[in-house]
């Protein structure tokens, strides 16, 4: 039986020195336990069932957006971890002649990972595998909202690891609060900006380092030069996958007024093609997820009704079924800034549309919100692309597509201020879980030539050394 969280923390702390000495081969062996577990057919079927119960997620989406992402990261780590764990030599400046300088990446110690409910396996295990490769002990707190998948993760980790290395802690917000009272060496949190601020405040007590993967309102810009049929189809998919419950989902659309009507037509056609086969409604599609909980369903319904009450109109969709927690992909027009739907992160299949005819207006709209996690630009005009990128800071940018910001481990993923702190994926995530230790080793010589007393000769020598740097 797993002990209480304070006992787990102390035991992991005591075990840190042992984990720090593990080599790349030993750390990869730990990752392959995870990889092989997810490849087992019985385990995979159990996962399908858990994610269906939590989100009614279809098996294909489980493979593509949960399991496949984890396995891609493990494959990438197999190719790179040995190189990352070597000493990284750096140049030696002239005043340090006779020394060698290098960087060593060492584990931080005991880390806490707090993961969300929307991609509960992916967003738990991706940071976990990077924490393991950096040599840390891990306490993982998955979301209690996606309870079936959280139970699956605990069963999996209890089978694969001793709790002194990896411990899964289930429970509600009170359990999370208890964990945040412990002096972790690093905290990796994925969730809302509001909760992220609480986590940062708790971490400040012990000066724990942080990675915050947050969200915010990620705008999608479509200008008059974009390929509208292609971009409408891609956006319809991006806004519908996981029922829009994705931190990198396009939150609202800013479109040139000259192509708005064509876009609406193509968007509707795409949704019907994806989810209305055999003339059945979206609610009958086996490929469309559901809202995670009654609370989140009511929150989305409030955003919708608030917008309508303040003058918005439904351009498509608007169907809500409380019992099934179903919301059809919905387009809203005539939206304005005083509506809650343009103030809060939506995190659902509602897409407000704002039109523009002068590109400077786009910047005014985006600047009304904090820096977004992602900026989406659809355009075939290089000048417009450059203009929108330069005027609108964001954690990442995707041009002429959607949802790709979390797909390439060679690129850092993360937000900008309100949308996040720190980076994940690839070497950047490995660094988040590592102490970057600088080392200078004297091989020959010394600085004795510049020791006191400071004569004119020493002054001239120092001036000569730094003049030539």
UniProtKB/TrEMBL annotation:
Active site annotated at which positions? Answer: 213
Which InterPro entries has this protein been placed in? Ald_DH/histidinol_DH, Ald_DH_C, Ald_DH_CS_GLU, Ald_DH_N, Aldehyde_DH_dom, Aldehyde_DH_NAD(P)
Extract one GO BP annotation from the record.
Answer: aldehyde metabolic process
The Aldehyde dehydrogenase domain is annotated at 4-439
GO MF: aldehyde dehydrogenase (NAD+) activity
Please indicate if the UniProt record lists Chaperone as a keyword.
no
Which PANTHER family does this chain map to?
Answer: ALDEHYDE DEHYDROGENASE, ALDEHYDE DEHYDROGENASE ALDX-RELATED
In the record, the note on similarity to other proteins reads:
Belongs to the aldehyde dehydrogenase family.
Protein name as it appears in the record: Aldehyde dehydrogenase family protein
Species the sequence originates in: Methanolobus halotolerans
